[in-house]
Design brief:
Elements: H1 2-17, E1 21-26, E2 31-35, E3 38-48, E4 51-60, H2 71-74, H3 79-91, H4 107-113, H5 119-132, H6 134-150, H7 154-166, H8 171-191, H9 197-204, H10 210-220, H11 225-247, H12 252-261, H13 263-275, H14 286-294
Antiparallel strand pairs: 1-2, 3-4
Helix pairs in contact: 4-14, 5-6, 5-11, 5-12, 6-7, 6-10, 6-11, 6-13, 8-10, 10-11, 11-12, 11-13
């Protein structure tokens, strides 16, 4: 009798420690317990008061939740976003062969004239060019070209291309932006096929400057405007810093500090340009425009502008 009581107490302990019980089936001689994630079947067969046989079977069970998301979705990027990032990083990297390294946008004259002498003065000069000069204007042209190309509005695209080509202060700046624009389109078209790009280029009807070229190609590849804008401005600022670093000269650490210091300026300029219209175009960097003009007659030069 004592042995039977002890077995009864053990049975109660087993019952108390089983969790997540969903179904309990009781028959004359067996108790079956089923859980959610794993089927735990405990069969307790009593043949007599003195003899009790306990058999436990554990069967793994698949979860009934929805299938896990694809790897790219879990990482926060789908296939289209990954392709867009890859292309932007390629097209607007210093290694993309548009010849940007050979132009200084008038910075060479500013260094010779003593307007730029160190990292601080270079940073201030570039911040002005970015927010109040050619940086902002080019960003507006990129945005307008991207929207016109995305809408397949050939008339609007032609107007934007013509205005952007005329919106430069000097012959050398015209050479700089139109040469880079032509190279950008030719190389991107040769390496990445895109339906409709040829038609967009033809619609411009003449020279295509660099920001318009970036806008058209980005639209042709369905790359969203905002990331294309930020990548473009980052590339422009990086090239300016590279030119300034060679001319002042500056070390790599100072160059990176300038780039870091202009991060907020790039973001602010992109934000303004994304909401601006053609009527908002304008430049207040007269000294930078003058530097671009005077570079044409500068005696000793390393850069083409």
């Amino acid at each position: 009798m004592r042995q039977a009581i002890r077995r009864t107490a053990t049975l109660r302990t087993i019952m108390a420690t089983i969790t997540m019980v969903m179904v309990i089936t009781i028959t004359a001689k067996a108790i079956t317990i089923t859980t959610v994630n794993t089927i735990i079947t405990t069969t307790i067969t009593t043949t007599s008061i003195a003899t009790t046989i306990i058999t436990t079977t554990i069967i793994p069970m698949l979860m009934t939740t929805s299938d896990p998301a694809p790897a790219d979705a879990r990482d926060g990027m789908n296939a289209d976003e990954t392709a867009a990032l890859y292309r932007l990083m390629t097209w607007l990297s210093p290694s993309f062969p548009v010849g940007a390294f050979s132009y200084s946008s008038g910075i060479e004259w500013a260094v010779e004239a003593g307007d730029i002498t160190d990292a601080a003065s270079l940073r201030d000069w570039l911040a002005a060019m970015l927010g109040e000069g050619s940086g902002f204007c080019d960003a507006v042209f990129l945005a307008q070209a991207h929207r016109a190309a995305s809408a397949r509005d050939e008339a609007a695209l032609r107007e934007i291309a013509e205005l952007a080509a005329a919106f430069v202060p000097s012959r050398e700046r015209q050479l700089e932006t139109s040469t880079q624009g032509r190279a950008f389109i030719d190389i991107a078209r040769a390496a990445w096929a895109s339906d409709g790009l040829d038609g967009m280029v033809a619609a411009c009807g003449g020279p295509i400057v660099y920001p318009v070229a970036v806008g058209i190609v980005s639209a042709a590849h369905a790359i969203p405007l905002a990331p294309a804008m930020h990548a473009f401005l980052h590339a422009v600022v990086s090239n300016w810093i590279s030119a300034g670093a060679r001319l002042v000269p500056l070390g790599q650490t100072d160059s990176q500090r300038i780039l870091a210091g202009l991060e907020a300026d790039v973001a602010a300029t992109a934000k303004r340009a994304l909401t601006a219209s053609i009527e908002d175009l304008g430049s207040a960097t007269f000294r930078a425009d003058l530097a671009s003009l005077r570079h044409e007659t500068q005696y000793t030069r390393l850069f083409r502008s």
